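Chapter review. Work through the record for Formaldehyde dehydrogenase, glutathione-independent before attempting the end-of-chapter questions.
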Amino acid sequence: MATNRGVAYMGPGKVEVQSIDFPKMQTPQGRSIEHGAILKIVSTNICGSDQHMVRGRTTAPKGLILGHEITGEVIEKGKDVEFINVGDLVSVPFNIACGRCRACRERHTGVCLNVNPQQPGGAYGYVDMGGWVGGQAQYVLVPYADFNLLKFPDKDQAMSKIKDLTMLSDILPTGYHGAKSAGVEVGSIVYIAGAGPVGMAAAAASQILGAAVTIVGDRNTERLAHAKKMGFETIDISKHDDLSAQIEQLVGVPEVDAAVDAVGFEASSHGKSNEAAPASVLNQLMGITFVAGGVGIPGLYVVEDPGAPNEDAKKGVLKIRFGKGWSRSLHFHTGQAPVLQYNRQLMQAILHDRLPIAKIVNATVISLDDAPKGYADFDKGAAKKYVLDPNGYLGKAA
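Structure tokens for Formaldehyde dehydrogenase, glutathione-independent:
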């Protein structure tokens, strides 16, 4: 049997590459299954959501194998898998979904009812998401393979665009979901809080949806410089307390048609010393969004945040000015992106040269052994999206 290695969370600020078990056709609870496929991983990305755990801001246990952004080649499949075959090159949605429950049938795959006994929704290598082993490794199991996997139509073509296609597992559909659920359409003026990879994906999505002006706000000068280089307007939120005034300087009015929170519960903004900054971000977005507009919230929020500045925030309770949002008739959309709603269309946009997402998020390939350094650099705010190459596929493609 082949060996396997993966990136393990070992406590706040520490990850290490370890020898781990080769995947078995079974659930985290040990039940044998025949609807799964085992993949040899082609690419797997470091995500900001992983970074939340590594910073110690969740209840993730030590030893958790990280990674939910996965692209791979099928090397084994269960006898119940009919339409995916050995040798297929596939994208893996980070949502694990059964395809059979009411939520999945209604295409809400981010809140599948059957893959996580703790709460709705499952994911690979993530705290409270069902115990499924993560994919920052050489091999991984994908359950319900026929339903979950997106097969690339041509392997050679896919490998020529693999740094773009690896974004289909999470950040590109997540950014697109944030923009679309906020109501971005042709001619929209859009503000995106956060210039990290998800924020840049939301900016790219806004562009392809037809936005007239896309503004990205952050306090990280390196990330803002990259966003500017990619053609987006930028705002350094550290230089002014009045976001609406900064927006007015750019577009002539102090408001936008749609706003996206691409940061989540670890946001850093104009919050008070004993107030969780995400509340400040969300309240700001309500203030700058035109009446009856929308706020998309693809940024991650958790039920428990042990590192929060006060007891309420540790339980996910934030001081949101909901009355302000209500009085302005705003609509809000939260939660995991249902990747299967978007990934095929976004794949086509990539394959037909409409969406150079790897360039926009500054995809940077590193080895599996360099994952700890990648986490450290990402934590410092590097304007990069780190892509791991655990089996040497990307090196050969290059």
